Please model this.
Amino acid sequence: MCDNRINKKVFIWANNICNNRLKNWNFRVHTKFKELDMEHFCNTNLIIDKHVIKNIENICFNRFKEQWYIDLMSNERSKLRTYRLFKNEFGEENYLLNIIPGKYRSAYAKFRSGTAPLKIETGRYEGLLVENRICYNSICN
Model:
């Protein structure tokens, strides 16, 4: 963008005055880039093209996947203890690619997300220990 355009002048002005007291949009973007160790993208002379945007997207996505895995494995008492038995890689599952009736897709999703009405899940609200959360028949109590 040309230096004489009003948009550029406003951006440079806002960029120069942002600080801990004045938390404008520029400040929040800088803060987020610092958190992600991507502060070099805050350079006002950097030309933002599709390659730069793709680079930022890749960094953010990889950080998300890393945090997902840390959260998944972090706590043995977590509700994710069942989920991590069959899911340890981030990605789309094969069953989502198949055309299956809605009730089966819903059942898969409930089981995988930990919201199915199984004793292992509902027992949490009853205060049962994990080892006592057993379904005694095909339909949990």
Summary: The longest helix spans residues 50-74. The chain has a mean pLDDT of 80. DSSP finds six helices and no strands in the chain.
